[in-house]
Amino acid sequence: MREGLIETKGGKIWYSVYGENEKGVPLLVLHGGPGLLSMPEVVEELSDQRPVYFYDQLGCGKSDRAGDKSYYSVANYVEELAEIRERLGLREVYIMGFSWGTMLACSFMLEKRPEGIKGLILCGSYLSSPRWHADQRENLAQMPCDIKNTIEESERNGDYGEKYQAAIMHYYRRHLCRLDPWPEFLQEAFSKLNMDVYLTMWGPSEITITGTLKDCDLLPRLKKIKEPVLLICGEHDEAGIKTVEDYCAAFSEADMVILPGASHMHHLEKPELFLRTVRKFLKH
Question: Which fold has domain 2-129+183-281?
Answer without folding.
Answer: Rossmann fold (3.40.50)
